[in-house]
Amino acid sequence: MENAIYNPNGKAESDLPIIYGFNNGGSPGFFSGVLIAADGKTLGGHLCSHEDRHAHRQ
After folding, report:
1. Tens digit of pLDDT for each residue in 1-33?
2. Separation of alpha carbons 42 and 50, rounded Å
3. Starting from the edge strand earliest in sequence, which strands make up the sheet with 42-48, in order?
4. Is 49 contained in some domain?
5. What is the spatial distance between Cα 9 and Cα 20, in angstroms, rounded to a whole number?
6. For residue 42, is it within any domain?
7. Is residue 40 part of a domain?
8. Any idea what the Cα angle at residue 18 is, between residues 12 and 19, rounded to 5°?
């Protein structure tokens, strides 16, 4: 599988931070997920109705 890359400044791929996705849990109908870059910057979050919506990809 090819990696998805957002690189608006044209940096070398090796200079980009790794992005980690976490399922923060919750309760049925209200699960929380978050994306965090290796440099500590929070990139986004997601609320959804089921944990299966937090896809796991490597």
Report:
1. 566 677 888 899 888 888 888 887 788 878 888
2. 22
3. 19-27, 30-37, 42-48
4. yes
5. 20
6. yes
7. yes
8. 125
